[in-house]
Structures are given as C-alpha cells and as structure tokens.
C-alpha cells in the first residue's frame, strides 16, 4: 500500500511537470483565465451589496455574514476546480470521441489518470477571492476563532472539496452510457450558486434538493454557519458534511467504475 502511494506520488509529479511545460507556452491564456474568474467572483460580491442596499437582512443574516458565507464557499470549490477540472472532459469529450482509450491502456488507476492529467490555474481566481473574503471576515470579528473552529475549518475545506468532486464525477460518469453528459453535469453543478445564500430563503423543494440530493448546502451555507453562530452544532454541520463527503464519493466512484467497465471505444 505504501509503495503504491509512493508510485502515484511520483507519477503525479511527472504529470504536473508536463502540464507546466504546456502552461508556460500559453501565458496569455493563463492570465486571461485567472483574471476572468477573479472578476466573475467580484461581480457576485457586487450583487450581494446591491441586494443589501434594498434588504438589510436576508433570512436572518446580515451583509458581513453573507460575505463570509460567499468567501467560505469559494475555497473548496476553487480547490476542486484546481485539481479535478479534467473530469469535465469526461462528460463532454473523452467518451464520445473515444479518447478515453488512452486511460484504459495505461497500468494506472483510471480516476487518478483523469485528475492527474491537468491542473486548472483559472481556479486561483476563486481561491484568491475566497481567501480575501475570509480574511476580511476575520479582521471584522464576524467569525468565531479558536482551536476547535480552526480545526473544523480545515476539515470542512477537505470535506467540501470531496463533495464538489463527487458530484462532478457522478454526473460526468453518466457519459459512459449517454456519450455526452455535459449538459446534465452543468445543470447540477450550477446549483452550487444557491448554496451561497441561506437555505431558509428557498422553497422546501429547492432546499431539500440542495441539502440532501445534490448537497451543495453542506459545502457553503450550513458549515459556514458553524463559524458564525455559537449555538450551531458541529455534528449538524461539519459532522454531516464529512459523512456526506464519504457517502457521495463512494457512490460516484462506484458509478464511475461501472461506467468504465461499460465503456466502448468510438469507431469511425
């Protein structure tokens, strides 16, 4: 087991080195993508300020708290975007074009091959905005800071990232039967935008979907509330987030493995 981990660590370094060779050949694309994602996030924050010019409190939360929730949500999303963005290609291209063949021919775990092949530097824009908003919230004493909450923050970032990856992997894996599952994945992934706001403002059906069916509420609003209010339970937020991360990733990986066993290379 230990030797296997060492092998994959060495392979990952090789993949990353090759990707950076490609990246230095297209610096303009990197900068455009980075600033594009950065300003997209800034637009979202500006939208929050416009809302609070008309509504001082939203679902019992004020602007400073919503800013933290927004920033908190961007960090696990950005980490997932940085390391596993290549999963999108499974949904859009690799299966329907038969390009998944190259993964099938290598003596290496198929899922790891997919995520090792590419980093997405554009995600640094999301991570930058999320970090800045979190730091601002700390400076304004919006969040509770002690040893327990710092540890909970780190745990939540990992669990939230796993949930993002699991949801993306699950819907991308439908491509092994549908050939192209990009539209389905895009629709599901866009629900994450609802989780940047208190779930209490939504109808019961929407709230149920983003909490338990496609649990984006557990990567943003719900765990973030643990750091904003002292009466919020650790288990009801971070604890359930960790359980959902394990369960959803297990389901997604199972579907992915079933899909790869059903994969048929595209013919001419």
Overall description:
- This protein is mainly alpha-helical and 268 residues long.
- The protein has helices at residues 2-23, 27-54, 63-84, 87-94, 101-104, 110-116, 123-139, 147-173, 175-178, 182-190, 204-213, 221-226, 234-262.
- Helix 8 (147-173) runs antiparallel to helix 10 (182-190).
- The chain is globular.
Helix content: over 70%
**Low-confidence region ranges:** none
Structural class label: mainly alpha
**Rg, alpha carbons:** 20 Å
Q: List the secondary-structure elements in sequence, H or E.
A: HHHHHHHHHHHHH
Shape: globular
Which percent band covers the strand fraction?
Answer: under 5%
Task: Summarize the model shown.
With 268 residues, the chain is mostly helical. It contains 13 helices and no strands.
Secondary-structure map with pairings?
Blueprint (H helix, E strand, L loop, with lengths): L1 H22 L3 H28 L8 H22 L2 H8 L6 H4 L5 H7 L6 H17 L7 H27 L1 H4 L3 H9 L13 H10 L7 H6 L7 H29 L6
